[in-house]
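Q: Trace token order:
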Amino acid sequence: MLAGVDEAGRGALAGPVVAAAVALPAEREIPGVRDSKLLSPARRATLEEGIRSGCLAWSVGLAAVEEIDRLNVLRASLLAMRRALLGLSGKPSVVRVDGPYLPEMPANWRRGVELEAMIGGDRRCPLIAAASIVAKEHRDRLMRRLDLRWPGYRLAEHKGYAVPAHRAALERLGASPAHRRSFRPVRAVGPAHDGNRP
């Protein structure tokens, strides 16, 4: 069994980092799978359904805003990847991870597992691309839920990324508990203003 791992949300100002692990038999691929950033939301949602129903196993791991602020976003991303891999219902023999770093895995789990870091893996490896789709879709659903809790920031629209509308909302409202305090644009505005809570 082969597994691909990728994350979504590293560069956002709000919300968790979400990693996904997707496992397939060695000879199987899922048609149409590409890096989640290259797909329309509708196509990505359709593919995610097919990936989850057609793979051997899949799992999602999260790193919360508090963990991102405490550890830094890279370490939090690797923690989310570790959680996703440990959540798989079986242990893969080969794991391909998007990016230059590998998550730290328990020694007994690593035994017999080949771990490979692939820069640009979401474009080069269909299995990592499948994981990127699952991670992105899962995180988008979480951001829509956070938007219901803090509607003033319009998190459902931009998923927490630093677009002009999000920066303007931060300036106007201050930061919500969903925002990453360790990120400069969030730190600069401080917490939500009294009487102006979203």
Remarks:
- DSSP finds nine helices and five strands in the chain.
- Residues 150-189 form one domain.
- The chain has two domains: 2-146, 150-189.
